[in-house]
Each structure stands twice: as C-alpha cells, then as structure tokens.
Amino acid sequence: MMQDTAFHYLRYPWGVSFTGMLLVAGPAGGVLVDTALPEAVDGFLLPQFRHFGFSLSALRLVINTHHHEDHAGGNARLRELCGAKFAIHRAGAAGLEAAGFRPDLLLRDGALLESAGLRFEIIHTPGHSPDSVCVLESASGMLFTGDAFQGCGTVYTGIALYIDPEAYLQSVAKIEALFRQGRIRRILCGHACAPFDGDVPEEEIPAFLEICRETVLRYSRAAEAYLANHPRPDAAELGRQLLKRFGVTAAPGLPGLEKHTAQAHLAAR
Ligand SMILES: [Fe+2]
Q: Model confidence at 3, in pLDDT bands (50, 70, 90)?
C-alpha cells in the first residue's frame, strides 16, 4: 500500500509564514490533517488538490491537531463541500463548538484511525494547548505535529508558544521515546519552527526535539531570574523580555502572544 500512497505537505501562505497541512492520498481515498483558515479552502486547498489530481469527493477524514483557528478554521467550509468526517482530541471539542463547528469523532491518546486503507495513530501532546495531538501515519513514520512543538519559536509569535511548560516537556519526551523505537522517520510542523523550516528529516529529529526542550528550560531560567527581581510580576513584561533575549524575529507577525508563554512560566512557580 505504501508505494501507492502520496504525501503532500501543504503550506498555506499566511502573513509572514505559513500554516501547514498534510494530505495523505491512497488509492481508496485521502485523509487531511488540519484545514488552516476559512479562506484557505477555496483559495488554496482546492487548487492544491486539483494540482495533485486529488478529487475532493475522495476525502474521507479530516483530523485536527488542535482547535485553534489557523489549524481548524477551514473545517466548516470543507464540510459544505464534501462528506469527510472530522476528528479532534476530546479536549478540543468545546473550542470547535464555540466556533460553531461540531466534530464527528472525539479522540483519546493512542487512538487508531483507519480510513481509506490508511492508518493513523493519535498521540496526545499537550503543552501548546490542552488538546494538541500529533498524527502519526503508521506505515511511513511521518508525524504531523501541528503546533505541539515549536523549536526556538515561530516567526508569528517570536518565541515558542505554550500554556503548560511541564506538559510541553513531557510531550517532547513522549515523541523522543517513539523516535527511539524507530516509529518516527520525519516530522512536519504546522508552521516554520526556528531553526527549521517546518520539515524535519529523520537525522535532524533528535536535534529538533532537544532544541524544543532547551528552549523551555532557557525561558524557565529567565522567568526565575525575573521573579527574583519583581515581587509583583507582570506576564506582558516578562514576555517582552523573553522576546528581546530569545526572540527569533525582531517583528513577530502576531505581537503580544509571547505573554502567554510568560504567563505559563509565572503560573508554574
Ligand atoms: Fe495553535
């Protein structure tokens, strides 16, 4: 089956970078991971499908890595156009429903999804958000991570964006363990994560995961030093400090988001 399966890492141009999606197309149909933004469906996804000769009617399943709009925003438009089922981790259901979209399947860690002769494993990797998952295409070892891992940061935020540092570190360790078992052979991210462009080949995976871990520890040490000198800490101020010291871009595409990472470190103390 694998030789008949095509993998397309789709990068929807968005602001200063892109939102990534993965289309896995086999002889019996296809599975899409993430849908980017609402306008991405007609403006980008459909032309891409045509370019690859993939018929929208062959789309069987959509898996969202998490509920954030830049990854799940295209769900509703896609549902209008085809009969695919939509799946998300159960912790993301409320977020989708708040945006007016009801998913068909709610997933747990370790869930196995089989569709169109393709097989995917859901690996719960919270930290960026409570519902973040990685999607592993079992036969190829291709792992789509969405926003679960951010290296030194994305150009959108400027730094790595997460709301639970401890969970983020545990998620890094979880993926490392799977890599050591030989089950992961390529990582694809939802955005470019410095110093990588979003596509991490097998030989670079240990370095990528180590950078993710080191980044959290670096922010954590900076937060401790900040707290030692600021009896009334302010997350926005710590966020600006993190950006200044560790930022991967001088002008983030979505300024202000760094305060969420800062708040997470303050709350962890
Ligand atoms: Fe996100």
A: low
Cis amide leading into 27 (omega within 30): no
Instruction: Evaluate whether 213 touches 169 at the Cβ level (below 8 Å).
Output: yes
From the CA of 182, how far away is ligand 1's center (Å)? Answer: 27
pLDDT digits (tens, 9 = 90+) for 136-172: 999 999 999 999 999 999 999 999 999 999 999 999 9
Q: Which CATH architecture has domain 2-148?
A: 4-Layer Sandwich (3.60)
Q: Supply the DSSP symbol for 161.
A: -
Tell how far the Cα of 172 is from the centroid of ligand 1, in angstroms: 16
Which residues have CB under 8 Å from 12's CB, separation 6+? Answer: 18, 19, 20, 21, 36, 37, 40, 44, 45
Where do the domains of the chain lie?
A: 2-148
pLDDT tens digits, one per residue of 215-243: 999 999 999 999 999 999 999 999 999 99
Distance 261 CA to ligand 1 centre (A): 12
Q: Please say whether the beta carbons of 149 and 172 come within 8 A.
A: yes
